[in-house]
């Protein structure tokens, strides 16, 4: 495995080879099929191996889970306590840990751990698994080659990040990819990738660096492809503005339950940034070359639909088939 978890100042240690930082959860972390681990306070431990959530026969006390949460958050360089009961960190090369403490967490301390896949599948590998069920793989490759700006959509756990990494890996090696993420987790098999990660404020409320600022800063780094790991707030305005000013080949992901839901999701994010529905529609239709929607069913993740953003007769955003 190529990803690591380490405490500050410690050398890199392969997670699934040691798992020491995960203490009582180490046996679950060792399982290379596991992509997500959930500790639901007194509700027990659950794991996802690709086929849905399964109960794990581990008996943990509230003290066990709380101590583990504090240790993992500290390993990510942040602090969690009753005054700051919610925290999200990245450990090593893409392990994401979210923790919630009582009283916000009503049944004891909650932990949500996402483990990145060891491999970084290329488009050819995805094609061999039947991933391209709704859009032909050749059409997707043509979009990448044509430097179309792509929006990858789907529900949580549908494979958006993995697919985006495979798409960007297909970009020419001569191109510079600049990635902006709230918590860095995108893994791209490409020789020229730089990543900017948002920073939360410290205990005094200072030092915050948000996604909107990172998008603006990234434009000064001369990206050939500008990538926003996930659109979920006011940063969508800065991204759409950047993609409308000659930055082709960009990409991002967006949570949406279906392709038809994408316009409403973009309008909602635009509203957070002070854009009305008409302004959002004109910006998005001009900036985004294609929307590729993923879904998960029966333990399989698939590209099930593709579309292009357009403006309807009411000046509102809509999606038409590719």
TrEMBL record:
Q: Which residues form the Bacterial type II secretion system protein E domain?
A: 21-296
Q: TM spans, by residue?
A: none
Q: Which Pfam families does the annotation name?
A: T2SSE
What the entry lists under InterPro entries is as follows:
P-loop_NTPase, T2SS/T4SS_dom, T4SS_GSP_E_ATPase, TadA-like_ATPase
Entry superkingdom = Bacteria
**Family according to the record:** Belongs to the GSP E family.
Name of this chain's protein = Pilus assembly protein CpaF
Organism expressing this protein natively: Antiquaquibacter oligotrophicus
